Structure formats: C-alpha cells, structure tokens
Amino acid sequence: MTGREAEALAKVLGARSATPLAKLGLETVGDLLRHYPRRYGDPGTLTDMDRLALGEHVTVMARVARASVRTMRARSGALLQAVVTDGRHELALTFFAKRPGALRPHEEKLKPQSVGLFTGVVSEYRGTRQLTHPDYVMVGIDADDEESAMFEASRPIPIYPASSSVPSWRIQRAVRTVLDPLRADDVEDPVPVEVRARLGLAGRLDTLRAVHTPADKESWAKGRDRLRFEEAFVLQAALAQRRARAAEQEATARPPRPVGEPSLLADLDAALPFDLTQGQLSVGEDLARELSEPRPMQRLLQGEVGSGKTVVALRAMLQVIDAGGQAALLAPTEVLAAQHARTLRLLLGPLAEGGLLGGAEHGTQVALLTGSLGAAARKKAMLQAASGEAGIVVGTHALLSEKVQFADLGLVVVDEQHRFGVEQRDALRAKGRTAPHLLVMTATPIPRTVAMTVFGDLETSSLTQVPSGRAGTTSHVVPADNPRWMERTWTRVREEVDAGHRVYVVCPRIHPDEDLPDGSSAARQDFDDVPDLLELVDAEPGRSGDRAPLRAVLEVAPMLRETPALAGLEVGVLHGQMAPADKEAAMAAFAAGEVQVLVSTTVIEVGVDVPEATVMVIFDADRFGLSQLHQLRGRVGRGAAAGLCLLVSTAQPGSPAAARVEALAETTDGFRLATLDLELRSEGDVLGAAQSGRSSSLRLLRVVQDADVIARARREAADVVASDPGLDQQPALRAAIAARLDEEQEEFLERA
Ligand code: ADP
Ligand code: MG
C-alpha cells in the first residue's frame, strides 16, 4: 500500500477525529477505507410527522422553526436545540458537543425558514419527540432543490462496526471526508486491469464509493460482490504463489525400488491381510509418481471416515524408506500418535523390527516421539531419528521442536491436518536437507471450496470408497428423557458385549461439577492441542442456560458400573486430563478387550481404530457438530460386525439441534454432512481461529455461499501468477498479499 492509502488519518482528518478511530485500529486512510459497513440502514420513504413512533428510524421533510446553541448548566458542554415543523406538528433536533463552537456549523445550516430532510431515531425528552444527532440534508446548501435533497436522503445509510466512543455516523463522516477527494490514481487496485476487463468488474475507487456512499441497494450489493471477489482473488494469488514457490524447491526424488529388488513396500503389499480398494490403488499410484519427482509433492488426501488413509500413507512412507529416506508422521494428539505407532508396527510386523533379532533383514523401525515421554525414552527416539535407524518417526507437535533432527527426512505426513497450521507444516519441512515431500490427510471430508481456501496450496486426492466387507453403521436418536429407551440402550450394550464386541460411551464433559458455559468449550477443553478447524461451536449460543447440564465422563462411568444390565462388565474411562501413560493404558485395555465399555470424551474422535468396537452411545449428541459426530461414529462398524450409533439427545423436537442429529442418523455420506455442517455455522468457526481473529483475513467472503466466487478467483489468480510468478507487473497485488501475510503472521504470533 502506497500513496494516499498509506497516509495517516491524523494528518488527513486532524488528531481530534483520528484519535478515536485509532481505538478501532484504524490508523491510515487505507484502514478506514477497508472498514466496510456491517449493513445498511434503509431511510425508507418520508414519514408523516403525525406518525412518529418512539424508537423508529424516520426521515421527515420539514421547515426549521428555530435553532439556538446554549451551554448546559447541569453538565459541562453545549447543546444545540432546533425545532422543525411540517406546519402542524413539531419535532425537536438535539446536538451535543463539548464546546459551543463545535455546534456553530450546524447552527449556520439550520437557518429558520429553510427546508431540509432529517433522518434519525425518534426518542422522547420531557414529553417532546426528538431526533438526537440526526443526519440531515438542507435544501439550498447540501442539495439544490427539494428533489435532490430527497435523493440524497433516500440513499442507504451505511452502518459501520462502531464503538460507544466512535458511533457509526462519525465513522461515516470520516469515510466521506477521506473518500470524496480521492481520484482513481490514488487508490491501488490489487485486481489487475485485464482481470477486471474480462470479468466486467468496476475499479477499486468506484467500488469503495459504491460500498461507502451507495446511491441505492443495487450499488452497494455490486460493490460488496466485487470486494468479495477481490478478497478471494488476493487469497488465491497468495496460494498460487505458494504452490509455485514450493514447486520450484528442490526435493530428493524417491522412486520405487525396481521389481525384484528387496523392498519394504513390496513386502508389505504381500503381507497385507486385505486387498487394497480401487481408490487406495489409484491414489497410491499418484503418490508413487509424485514421490519420484525431484520436486516436493504437495498433496492433500481427504477421505471418508474409515476409507483406509493410514495404509495409503504407510505405502508412501515405505517407498521413501526404500529409496533411503525417512518419513515423519505428525498427529494432533498423543492418543492418536501412540495409536498410529501401534498400528504401523502391527501392519509392518517383522518389517518394523529392522536390526533386531527376528526382524526382517532390510526392515526399519517405528519411533514414537511425544511431549510427555520420559527423558530416557525421548533421548532414544531422538537418537533413532537422527541416526536414521527409525525409518518412521511418529509424533505430536513435539516433532516440531528444533532439537529433533532427522538423518534424511524425505516425507512428512500430517494426519488430521485441521489442527495444524501452515506454520507448523513449514517447521517440519524445514527439517529436511532438501524440501521433504508432503502428504496432508484430513480427518473429515471437506467441501471443495473449503479445500480451496484452507488448503489451497495443495493438490487434492479423495478416497470416497470404504473397503467392502464392512457391515456399516446404523444410527438412531434416543430421547434422553425417555427412561425406557435409555434402559433399552444399556440392554443393547450388554448384548453386544456378550457377543464379543466393545462399546464406546461418549460424553462432552470430564467432571460433572465443572461449571462450563456450554458444550462447545466442554468439547474443546479436552483437546491436547490447538483448536480444531472443523469442530463444533454450539450452534445455539445463549441457550445453554436453560438446558440440563452436560453429561460428564466421571459421572457416567460410575453410573454405568451400577447399572444392572451391565453387571460384571469392566467400564474404563479416557479423557484429556489423564496422564499420557494412563491414556495409553486405557486405550490398550480397551483394544485388548480387558475393558469392554469405554466412557470417554471426544479424545477418541479422530482416527482411533478398534475393530471390535461395534456400539457408540453419544450423550448430548445435539450439542456436537455434524462433522464431529460423523467422525465419532466412524469409530464403530469398522470390522465385519455391523455398527450401531445411539445418539442420546435432549434437543426439543423441531429445533435446529434436533434437525442436526436427525440428519446424522439419516445419512452416512461424510461429504454431504460436511457441507450441511458448514451451512449451519459461521465462517469463523469453519476457518479456525487464525481466520476469524480481530483483523480477520476473510472480511466479506463466505466459504459456502461464495463457492463460485472462490472458484473463479482461483482460476484468474492461477493465470496471473503463471504468466508473472513474481507479480512484478502487479505491485498492488503484491502489496495486498504482503499485507495479508502480515496479518496472518501477527495472528499466529498472538496465538502462540
Ligand atoms: P481412516 O481413513 O478413517 O483413517 P483407517 O486408515 O484407520 O481409516 O482404516 C480403517 C480400517 O480399515 C483399518 O482397520 C484398516 O486396517 C482397514 N483397511 C484399510 N484398507 C482396507 C482395505 N482395502 N480392505 C479392508 N480393510 C482395510
Ligand atoms: Mg485415520
């Protein structure tokens, strides 16, 4: 940003007007111009003066009867009081100021006998109707005649995000003062002129005028659309540059071993107890090809819950190890990291016992590195990573620590990506000698435009198919207040356990006596890590007060131990406040069948895999998000036996929460649920804390509704970056991208 937009408001408006604006974070002309109206007031048609209702926003055409300034006795300050009339009724106009001088301009305009249009909210003071600080247009001063005064007054009124010390109308005046003298050259447009011409978009100055001083609804709507495009365009250009830069980086090619030579990958394929699905094979081929290139692979693998992403990732890792490199697998929680290490060792069998007695000759090792490891275990794992002894290093964000080093890191796999930021991805990638290949896997299927927005620097592969031979899961809604249904639920649990199966019982809270404001923070408190991108924030804020308290793990577990239908069963607990070793032990006991009923918080949400688990009972299901419920439900029905998911709900029939739970019971299509989920909540929740902060990067764009805009912006941005990768011809676009990255950086630092 250069030129006029970089000018300090203090210089343009004077310190007195600029100081309060600075409190809103508005320091420069550009800041103020980008402070867009939140909505627009409708001045509507002229109001009859005999129908002035208290509290209503009105516009009247009237003649000034008298006006006078006086100082107030009761409190310090000055007051301008005017009275206007339509000949039959009177209306008072009141303006306050610190000093009488500030009111003189009004007094000069509000000359007795002159006619004007007055707009404001009707209030009452000592029995007289009045407008305080009305907007007004005087005939003969602000407008030539009554007709043009009518026009001025009929324009939509921009309503700005404001504060008590800086009301919207003050911002409106400041914006006008700044905007009126600007010429097209003063305003830099990040959207290149060719793109504007091709899409028939207005220039930036016209757009700012349309948004800040619209003549009518159509003009602000058009201006807003153009700003949405601009926002999407800048973001997509940033992402296109990121992609281009990554593609320029040098990576080590890790081609597969020729057929016939000893290979971990070939050995694994031969030993797998199942056939890979068509999808797994074809994604596998894409990965194999990209890993063979001397450019870093940059791929997002999204898949339906249970579609078998782990084995796809493992096969990629083995190809890299076969080619002499190492792979790191980054998981969002300790539970998941530990489970991944266990799963990988299990899948690899003797192949994971490289260098050990009885291990395969060319085998490798899987090391687990998490924050809570004891000093000795930690040292050992770090040594295995640094020496290259471990071909696979699994861990949480402890892996990002600078102390962790690899002999030759060739591939980074990030599982359940949405809890890792771009910065964290970069930190890991910086650990390779050359840029490591990158595979990101999402826990939940995500709609296309979200993928484009949040993971726009990655190419996408999808696994939509679930391996055959799975019986699938049926879901039912259980009303919490129906004792017979609840009783039936526990009998059903008993039957499953007697048939050799296992049962999860999920609760949103840990402690029954913890006073938490609502389900969302309860669900959140239990994550080991940063907030989740696709996780629920209660869709009905403000309703928590009148609802029954959420069920808690430490209340439900003892209750189940006392439930006659479950007599003799082992009931275990698992939650985020347990020591990591205890969490591990609880999961292991459940996996081994020593514990048959596991009462847990959402820590089991992502990726936990116990094939014998067939039933999941979710308490307060109406308080979770759809994607989260889908993810939870994906923990059962993974083996040959049919899964059953019982959604215990306290939602009022017919409420949105009830609709959500019913939608889940009716469909198992994760992509559909993800889209539905998005529609049910605000953008900030979707894009996570990084994007919803104070100086939010996404000001106007809506990920779901603006899908077309995002797609178009992506195409245009890709073209522009392809023909001019450094954006040398586009200084304004370059500046907009830099400003955006600064904001992100700032937000990241604030979060860290
Ligand atoms: P997700 O994609 O949700 O991460 P996982 O990778 O955890 O799914 O796989 C779920 C389960 O399916 C695992 O037990 C895994 O071993 C099994 N699995 C993976 N691929 C196949 C396949 N082609 N046929 C049968 N089972 C499979
Ligand atoms: Mg998984």
TrEMBL record:
Sorted alphabetically, the keyword list is: ATP-binding, DNA damage, DNA repair, DNA-binding, Helicase, Hydrolase, Nucleotide-binding
Pfam families for the chain:
DEAD (PF00270), Helicase_C (PF00271), RecG_dom3_C (PF19833), RecG_wedge (PF17191)
InterPro entries referenced in this protein's UniProt entry, alphabetically = DEAD/DEAH_box_helicase_dom, Helicase_ATP-bd, Helicase_C-like, NA-bd_OB-fold, P-loop_NTPase, RecG/Mfd, RecG_dom3_C, RecG_wedge
Its recorded name reads Probable DNA 3'-5' helicase RecG
Q: Which GO terms describe its molecular function?
A: helicase activity
Q: Which residues are in the Helicase ATP-binding domain?
A: 290-463
Q: Which residues form the Helicase C-terminal domain?
A: 526-679
**Entry superkingdom:** Bacteria
Keyword DNA-binding found: yes
Q: Which organism is it from?
A: Isoptericola luteus
Phosphoprotein keyword on record: no
Question: What is the phylogenetic placement of the source species in the record?
Answer: Bacteria, Bacillati, Actinomycetota, Actinomycetes, Micrococcales
